[in-house]
Amino acid sequence: MIAYNPKSWIRLIFHLTKSDTFSILWKELLFIFLFTLGIAFFEIHFFSDAVVLEKLFSVYSILGFVLSLLLVFRTNTAYDRWWEGRRKWGELVNDSRNLAVKLTALDLSFEDNHFFGRHIGNFALCIKEHLRQGTNFDLLDLTEEEQVFLQNLDHIPSGIAELLYKRLNELKKAGVISEEDVLRLDRNLNGFLDCVGACERIKNTPIPYSYSIFFKKFILTYVITLPFAFVVNFGYYSSIIATFIFYVLVSIEILAEEIEDPFGTDDNDLPTDEMAQRIQGIVQTILDKP
Questions:
Q1: How far from 53 is each of 33, 65, 110, 140, 225, CA to CA, in Å?
Q2: How far is residue 254's CA from residue 154's CA, in Å, rounded to a whole number?
Q3: How deeply is 12 buried, as exposed, middle or buried, from its count of CB atoms within 10 A (0-12, 13-18, 19+)?
Q4: Are 245 and 31 in contact (CB under 8 A)?
Q5: Which of 155, 123, 136, 129 is nearest to 283 (CA)?
Q6: Cβ distance 43 to 227 under 8 Å?
Q7: Model confidence pLDDT, tens digit, residues 31-62
Q8: Residue-by-residue DSSP string for the chain
Q9: pTM score, two decimals?
């Protein structure tokens, strides 16, 4: 995720990144410009029925209104997914910090505190990678025995939660902590798994295929036929107008596609790397005390 100053208008306008839609769409923009220019040429020289063209202009005004409603729905749907992902990661930060603070109040041994500190941090690092291409064990702070245990599992975040629960049960059986202590800690551990489940739901449930295809076809058909309606008023300039409209509409679709899966490494995705490292630093500061 790119950190920026939203008040710096001029710098933002001229700042280009790999996610800038103009750099992504320039070939398509050139094609649309030339294609619509050809349609405008054909209309001007071979079809000059102004009455029909004026009626077409009215039809495209109505279609533009319908398209704007679709754009609002598309943008809101994508942003809702992005924001829910951010909210769930915020809950993970809170649950991690709260769990670490509760553990310090139990007056556990340094070894136990270090164990919990390692695996709370491991959990955040693990789900960050789990939501991308799969868990990278090189990033995790694991013993050899723990790594062997986790590598035999299909769902690594659940395995780390299992290690935490096992240590809590061992401490309860040894009389170090009480049943009430376990119940208090269980609320935050459940929050860990709830966060994973919610993020997996966002990642694994894309926008319905039929809707996505329809929207793309609607935009393309609308843009490449614009000159039929606009040439009577704008002449060859209708090709410039059609190209600009294509740029705006398709850019919104591209940005929506990028943020609807907010857990990757695109410019507009959530800063899960930083948040995972923040969680690791917080719990180590709280728990790894001599």
A1: 20, 19, 81, 65, 12
A2: 32
A3: exposed
A4: no
A5: 123
A6: yes
A7: 888 888 888 787 777 765 555 556 666 777 77
A8: -----TT-HHHHHH---TT-HHHHHHHHHHHHHHHHHHHHHHHHHH---HHHHHHHHHHHHHHHHHHHHHHHHHHHHHHHHHHHHHHHHHHHHHHHHHHHHHHHTTT--HHHHHHHHHHHHHHHHHHHHHTTT---GGGS---HHHHHHHHT-S-HHHHHHHHHHHHHHHHHHTTSS-HHHHHHHHHHHHHHHHHHHHHHHHHH-PSPHHHHHHHHHHHHHHHHTHHHHHHHHHTTHHHHHHHHHHHHHHHHHHHHHHHTSTTSSSTTS--HHHHHHHHHHHHHHHH---
A9: 0.83
- Specify whether the CB–CB gap between 196 and 20 falls below 8 A: no
Residue 1: pLDDT over 70: no
Under a CB-based contact definition with an 8 Å cutoff, are residues 67 and 246 in contact?
A: no
For 72-83, the pLDDT digits (tens) are: 888 898 999 999
